[in-house]
Amino acid sequence: MFRIFKSATFDKDFDKLDNSEQKRVDKILNQLLERGGEVGKPLSGLPFFKEKKFDGKRLYFLVYENLHVVLVLAISDKKAQQTTINLILRDLAQYQQYVLAELKKKAVT
Questions:
Q1: What pTM does this model have?
Q2: What is the pLDDT of residues 29-49, one digit of tens each?
Q3: How would you list the strands of the sheet with 57-64, edge to edge?
Q4: Is residue 98 part of a domain?
């Protein structure tokens, strides 16, 4: 079982989706809870940076297998795909710090 952490960017992107798309994302999040890194396609040659396609959009997330955590980062369409990927790659170290800080807050190490 994995824990799901969500970024503020993901929350904003999720709120912009229509009801059926939100339900689809919820199903993906449930898959991530159960199967973690088995879900999605690796990006940029990094096995822990993944995307899952749905309804012409992409859900981006990082999988921290050793911590049993998935950090859901953003949702974009094909047009914004490369920009979104570049922003995520730029901030990888900050995302890891965020996950570690959240785990500390929740007293789970």
A1: 0.93
A2: 999 999 999 999 999 999 999
A3: 3-6, 69-77, 57-64, 46-54, 41-43
A4: no
